[in-house]
Design brief:
Layout: H1 3-14, E1 23-29, E2 46-47, E3 50-51, H2 52-62, E4 68-73, H3 80-88, E5 93-98, H4 103-111, E6 120-125, H5 133-146, E7 148-154, E8 160-162, E9 168-171, E10 178-187, H6 188-200, H7 210-216, E11 222-225, H8 236-254
Parallel strand pairs: 1-4, 1-6, 4-5, 7-11
Antiparallel strand pairs: 2-3, 6-10, 7-10, 8-9
């Protein structure tokens, strides 16, 4: 958790305002991996010595904002999760359920398993394994304030709207374009209204993400800038990019600024070894 978030929590606590609400995370890992070019299930591929899904689960497991994890998995991989939980100390996994025919159906299956105490639900792609605690915390903070929030990043390319024949019809205002990521975090009552409204209207399968469900009932979802490292493993090239990001993070964490010389009792600075 960031220093700013910790300070904010302390201020809320001092004012008698709730600083934590039970939050369930639904990790969606039931994808077919059709774009991995025969490399296998993307969830189980190793990235720097650890399965992709294990990296995702470990980050959510270690987040102080998350109280339980529901995994939605491929039916033929259900038995892998007890082994991963033991191997990586994933003690917040409350249930592992088989996915459905579509992503939206898979999320709904996970949502039906969350604890009745859950006031917030965080939905995340299992293949988006470079998510950090800072990202989870930033999105949670905005969801706590606004009822719904989504990790995203601003578009940097010029965006064209095409007509039905593939010709450029309009150049969109890039400053208003964001690329959606996960986690997407909602107050449970907001997501309940959104998902079941879509079910009743038979529109669940047409939603491109969970944010779209909230938008359909007129709820405004806060966009949270989370940078470009929070990539989703979809193709073999993504693995190479993810390895490069991990290497850069290791290099950054290994760097330490030179320590200042220790002060002696008289206040003068002690010289280092000659």
């Amino acid at each position: 958790m960031s220093l700013a978030s910790s300070v904010a929590d302390l201020l809320r606590s001092a004012a008698g305002i709730e600083t934590h609400a039970f939050t369930s995370a639904i990790i969606v890992a039931a994808g077919s991996s059709t774009r991995m070019a025969g490399a296998g299930s993307k969830q189980m591929l190793e990235l720097d010595g650890m399965p992709v899904i294990a990296r995702t689960l470990r980050t959510f497991n270690n987040s102080p904002r998350i109280d339980e994890i529901i995994v939605v998995a491929k039916p033929d991989e259900l038995d892998e999760y007890p082994r991963l939980a033991e191997l990586y100390g994933l003690n917040k996994i409350a249930a592992v359920v088989p996915g459905g025919q579509t992503r939206a159906d898979s999320v709904l299956r996970g949502f039906r398993k969350i604890n009745e105490k859950a006031k917030y639900v965080a939905i995340h792609d299992g293949a988006r394994c470079l998510v950090t605690d800072a990202v989870i915390d930033a999105v949670w903070q905005k969801a706590y304030r606004h009822g719904a929030a989504i990790a995203a990043t601003r578009a940097i390319d010029t965006i064209k709207l095409a007509d039905e024949h593939g010709f450029a019809a309009e150049t969109l205002d890039r400053s208003l374009i964001w690329q959606a990521q996960t986690p997407q975090i909602f107050a449970t009552k907001v997501y309940t209204a959104a998902v079941y409204t879509a079910v009743e209207a038979d529109e669940l399968s047409t939603a491109t993400d969970d944010c779209a469900l909230a938008e359909r009932i007129g709820y405004k979802v806060k966009l949270v800038e989370c940078g470009r490292d929070n990539i989703k493993i979809t193709t073999p090239d993504d693995l190479s990019r993810a390895e490069a990001i991990l290497a850069a993070r290791r290099e950054a964490s290994a760097y330490r600024a030179p320590e200042k010389p220790a002060k002696q009792a008289n206040g003068s600075e002690q010289e280092g070894d000659a």
